[in-house]
Amino acid sequence: MTQAPRARRVTANRPITLQGEHARANGKIINISASGLLVKSPVRAREGTRLGLIFDLPTRERFIPIKTIGRVARLIEEGDHYLLGIMFENPGDDLRQAIESYIDYVESIKQNASVRRRST
């Protein structure tokens, strides 16, 4: 049995608002892919919890505002905060395209930085 290829994932370090049924929290996106993201959160959320996700992503042209729904797939307690692995729930083409544009942007910055280091 072959596994589906993993979605491209990049480090993000972007602010995010998590909206639960009874609470709202501000967190930090650690990394992101077209299928989900890893968030550092000050509050705990159980696996299976649906959360509203509000954040924006820079691309070459502009910042893209994102408002979508995700479900907590993984929870890791780390001292005074939590890492939440969140899978996007029914991600549409617009969301996938925005994330792919962000990933392309981040990878181009890394590539340009690498070229500059080699030329100096």
Describe this structure in words.
This is PilZ domain-containing protein. With about 120 residues, the protein is α+β, with helices and mostly antiparallel strands. It has one domain (about 10-120): Thrombin, subunit H (Beta Barrel), CATH 2.40.10.220. Helix content is about 20%, strand content about 50%. The protein contains one helix and six strands. The chain has one helix at about 95-120; strands at about 10-20, 25-35, 35-40, 50-60, 65-80, 80-90. Strands 1-2-3-6-5-4 form a six-stranded antiparallel barrel. Strand 5 (about 65-80) and strand 6 (about 80-90) form a beta hairpin. The radius of gyration is 15 Å and the shape is globular. The relative contact order is 0.20.
What is the structure about, briefly put?
By secondary structure, the chain is of the alpha+beta class. The chain has one helix at 93-119; strands spanning 9-19, 24-33, 36-41, 50-58, 63-78, 81-88.
Q: Could you say what the CATH architecture is?
A: Beta Barrel
Q: Output the radius of gyration.
A: 15 Å
Bin the helical content.
10-25%
* Overall number of domains: 1
Strand order of the largest sheet: 1-2-3-6-5-4
GO molecular function, one term: cyclic-di-GMP binding
Pfam family, one: PilZ
Domain PilZ: 6-103
Protein name: PilZ domain-containing protein
